[in-house]
Design goal:
The chain is of the alpha+beta class. The protein has eight helices and eleven strands. The two termini are 18 Å apart. The protein binds coenzyme A. The site of coenzyme A has 17 residues, from strand 5, helix 5 and helix 7.
Amino acid sequence: MVEDKHIPNNILFYKDYSCRKSSMVNQFTLSKSGASATIEVLTPAHLPKVLALHEATRAALPEAQKMFVLPQSSGYFEKFLNGQSGIMLGVSTNGQLIAQLVLMGPLALEDVIAKRAVTRNNIAFHHVGVFDTVVAIKSMAVHPDFRGNELSQHILAAALEQPLVQNADHAFAQISADNERSWELFLRNGFGLVAAATDPGDQKGRFILQKPATGFSFDMAPSADDVDPVKDFQAITQLTQREGLIGRLDEGASLTSGLRLVFSASAELEGPLPRVVQTQN
Ligand SMILES: CC(C)(COP(=O)(O)OP(=O)(O)OC[C@H]1O[C@@H](n2cnc3c(N)ncnc32)[C@H](O)[C@@H]1OP(=O)(O)O)[C@@H](O)C(=O)NCCC(=O)NCCS
């Protein structure tokens, strides 16, 4: 446990973040139907809609993609809807909840590791200070009938503007390596790929993405480019774990070759890499 004297003020502030009135964050027009949509902080009253959207999103995924959205209990969502462990954002149109995500935190690094808040794998948190605070973005879902309205971009942008995220030192997300649409979205929103690992549950690859509040500053010359996110998965594991490199989209890659990544060192990480933190299974 981190002692209270080590907990930055913003954690104490967020313990009091639970004024559980739904509050509108943003309003925009759906690009497909032209209908108006609102983004708001969800409340416990939204629980049935949250569960229904989670299930509808999962049900629409083919079997091989079910791990994009893991099954969750109502208790899991309740602790975000009531502000106990974070918040939930939702997008609604005509009274229907059509997109949502969870913001878990703020958490101290020790708790991120102990609670496996970002990943069940033992990864190296090379780019987080011991007293930094972290918010984990989880359970993003868009209703299958409303795909193609860039709802994931709208809700992620709104999430990054939330005081909960703005006051944290880092935002993190874990995304299936197969879920190209999703990790590309995060990379395009300022996240870097900082770890890759095989999930102990389903043995499928996961990418860990991180966005420090002040962004990454990279060494000038990339250390590896034209990296294939699928074929080079093992290499990505090592580049990030052992060398502490950070992946971004390789904008120079040819259009026909599909998405490629470029890996660079952080200009801020000097000397020997911090010890990799291991947790017991
Ligand atoms: C990832 C996700 C949130 C993106 O949804 P979105 O914001 O609607 O995506 P976009 O608006 O950028 O869609 C771009 C195109 O991809 C299509 N598309 C989006 N998600 C799709 C999916 N899961 N399967 C097939 N096509 C999909 C859209 O229909 C659209 O095509 P169109 O332009 O021909 O209409 C959504 O796919 C989803 O809910 N997936 C399942 C849950 C998931 O993966 N969550 C993320 C976990 S980290």
